[in-house]
Write a structure and sequence with these properties.
The protein is mainly alpha-helical. It contains 9 helices and 2 strands, in the order H-H-H-H-H-H-H-H-H-E-E. Strand 1 and strand 2 form a beta hairpin. Helix 1 crosses helix 5. The protein is globular and about 50 Å long.
Length: 236
């Protein structure tokens, strides 16, 4: 397996097409048991905060073009934000009845996976470094608050952890390789909110935030780097 294939696989694991259904399934497991119902609602709030923050930041740029001065920034990276929320929290929840050291270890593993996904998103040029870093910080901050609120309550709940793990793994396998249509949906919303069809895109940042790319003949071009994220079934 080439390194490029690894980066693509990691990016798909952090895509909304995988994480949104998995987060919804985790919510269903939590609210199904009375002992974890409150944690389930906290989880829903956490998901709405992270996903909403990502969506609002992107809509703000699409409609108004606002971004921090000098930054290559069109909104929070959804891959980074959702991954840093979901994977550490999922690790803590599926090992809730185990010893504390194991729960802490799974949170660390989840955070490591989220970091790898975030790096892959940057390496494949799906997002800029600033988008990845800010997105990761936002997801990690919300995840930390959720874990502080739910850590004890889920540890004492009679959850069917083996079935939770099996159902989420099955959902990951089914959804892997698909892409969440966030760009299309947000563009539609932005065009309705802004009242015009000409939305701000990354192209508008060429002169402000992107360095010119080297040409093969040693010259330079102002075109932005091409997005290299390709469908999973086309990767060889």
């Amino acid at each position: 397996m080439t390194m490029l294939r690894v980066w693509h696989a990691l990016t798909y694991i952090g895509d909304g097409a995988v994480l949104v259904p998995c987060a919804a399934l985790l919510f269903a497991w939590l609210i199904a048991a009375p002992a974890t119902r409150r944690s389930g609602w906290w989880w829903l709030v956490a998901m709405l905060l992270v996903a909403g923050g990502v969506a609002l930041s992107k809509l703000l740029y699409m409609v108004s073009g606002w971004h921090p001065a000098g930054w290559n920034f069109t909104g929070l990276s959804g891959h980074a934000a959702l991954s840093f929320l979901f994977w550490p929290c999922a690790g803590a929840l599926v090992t809730a009845r185990n010893r504390t050291w194991l729960r802490v270890a799974t949170v660390g593993l989840g955070a490591s996976l989220a970091l790898a996904i975030s790096v892959s998103s940057w390496v494949l040029r799906d997002h800029s470094l600033s988008e990845v870093v800010v997105g990761a910080l936002w997801g990690a901050a919300v995840a930390t608050v959720f874990l502080l609120l739910a850590w004890r309550s889920v540890a004492q709940a009679p959850l069917a952890h083996k079935w939770m793990i099996a159902s989420m793994l099955l959902l990951v396998l089914v959804a892997l390789g698909h892409e969440f249509p966030s760009k299309r949906v947000l563009s539609w919303i932005a065009s309705r909110v802004g009242g015009h069809s000409a939305l701000h895109t990354r192209t508008n940042l060429r002169q402000q935030a992107q360095l010119p790319e080297e040409k093969p003949d040693g010259g330079r071009t102002d075109s932005p780097p091409a997005r290299t994220h390709t469908p999973l079934h086309e990767i060889r």
